[in-house]
Automatic annotation (TrEMBL):
Protein name listed in UniProt: MFS transporter
Coiled coil: none
Transmembrane residue ranges: 21-41, 47-69, 89-122, 163-188, 221-242, 254-276, 288-307, 313-332, 353-372, 378-401
Organism: Nonomuraea recticatena
Keyword vocabulary terms for this entry: Cell membrane, Membrane, Transmembrane, Transmembrane helix, Transport
Protein origin, superkingdom: Bacteria
SUPFAM superfamilies noted in UniProt: MFS general substrate transporter
Keyword Transport: yes
């Protein structure tokens, strides 16, 4: 168990924050550079762009559940280190292939899949590892700090990514993410924590996977969180396709401007990450989840009115407000999940949640690619906006979610 101390005097937490900051910063560079590698370097079609999004998220569907079992069986820090190292090597192959003149869409799909596998193991172990170094009472603050860092990276990373693409080309820009993953792996390897893996008397993989799923699906709050997450990840798959098509192809923005607009949406994430612990302290986890859902279901409508000229600004403003609201919701549900789940089930709970939620994103990516071949980008933009609105409705209409506290079952 973590010792009772100020969260910022916790050396293990400090190092994890540093590693997370590097990793998240590089990830946001890739958020810009990978689709632009497909669009600008390899001239991918809308459907091929959708397939790239699906490849990035397919690992959540393919191995999401077994990853949770391994996160409960093994110490989680080594999993984090190995996942970062895997992603660094995979991304490094893209600039090397581009330099050799052999880069192809097929390689992008393979790299996206490998990076996705690393992300699955990292995310499941990451969320399960935090309670090993942070006291339970500090979980909202700790998770809020992580979300603020994620949003800070969102604020700076895409802008840098766009600049790197414009100056050095998109494949070379991915080198920055490979470096940050490698540095994160080194820092994480220095963390010492009192981890207690599951009992060595293990059952078969299927039984352990089923136990995690039963826990989530049998818990009314976790079941509702999974539903909201799945609907929103489906919408996010649509956004992954419509965003570069709208900003780069339809509005004819350069890579630098594209990166700056994506970065601007990170302002909302920083604000949301700072406010979330305070909102949870005052209104409880349920209040944060409900209020975040209401606002995150309204602000996407502003994004739908994006157009040429001054109305381009509606995109980053609307997205920033949406992200701020979503971060409050995410910190509320994330801290609730970690607090109510027994340690020996936490890895499988997080894996089950990721599987149930994130498996919808490759579906959204393929759907977005198919729709982009048939509809105008403007129509697809409104489809993505309305899908986000619908994704938050289960929390909004729930009669009991507002009064929920972290200690409730």
């Amino acid at each position: 168990m973590p010792t009772k101390q100020s969260i910022w005097r916790n050396t293990a937490f400090q190092r994890m924050v540093g590693a997370d900051a590097l990793s998240q910063f590089g990830t946001q560079v890739t958020l810009v550079a990978l689709p632009l590698t497909a669009l600008l370097t390899l001239e991918a079609s809308p459907f091929q762009l959708g397939l790239l999004t699906a490849a990035e998220m397919a690992a959540f569907l393919l191995i999401g559940l077994p990853a949770g079992v391994w996160a409960d069986r093994l110490r989680r820090r080594p999993i984090l280190v190995a996942a970062d190292a895997m992603r660094a090597v995979a991304l490094l192959s893209i600039p090397l292939a581009a330099f050799a003149g052999v880069l192809s869409l097929a390689q992008l799909y393979v790299v996206a899949l490998i990076v996705g596998v690393g992300t699955v193991f990292f995310d499941v172990a990451h969320m399960s590892f935090v309670p090993s170094i942070v006291d339970r009472d500090d979980l909202p603050r700790g998770i809020g700090t992580m979300e603020t860092l994620r949003s800070g990276a969102w604020l700076a990373g895409p802008g840098l990514g766009g600049w790197l693409v414009q100056v050095f080309t998109a494949p070379v820009a991915l080198l920055a993410d490979a470096i940050t993953y490698a540095c994160s792996a080194v820092i994480l390897s220095t963390i010492r924590a009192d981890e207690r893996p599951d009992s060595p008397q293990r059952r078969n993989l299927r039984a352990e996977v089923a136990e995690g799923l039963r826990y989530v699906l049998g818990h009314r709050v976790l079941r509702l969180i999974a539903m909201v997450g799945a609907l929103n990840m489906l919408a996010n798959g649509l956004w992954a396709v419509v965003q570069p098509l709208l900003l780069v192809r339809e509005l004819d923005l350069g890579a630098g401007a594209y990166g700056l607009i994506v970065s601007a949406t990170g302002v909302g994430g920083v604000v949301g990450g700072v406010l979330a612990p305070k909102i949870i302290d005052r209104y409880g986890n349920g209040g944060a989840m409900y209020g975040g859902a209401v606002l995150a279901g309204l602000f996407p409508l502003l994004v739908g009115f994006t157009a040429d000229g001054w109305r381009v600004v509606l995109y980053p403003v609307g997205m920033a407000l949406t992200v701020a609201s979503a971060i409050v919701l995410n910190v509320g549900q994330g801290s609730y999940r970690q607090a109510v789940t027994p340690d020996h089930l936490r890895g499988r709970m997080n894996a089950s949640m990721r599987f149930l939620m994130w498996s919808a994103m490759p579906v959204g990516g393929i759907l977005g690619g198919l729709l982009a071949e048939q509809l105008s980008v403007w129509t697809l933009l409104w489809v993505a906006c309305l899908a986000t609105v619908v994704g938050h409705l289960p929390f909004i209409v729930s009669p009991w979610i507002r009064a929920l506290r972290a200690e409730q079952p």
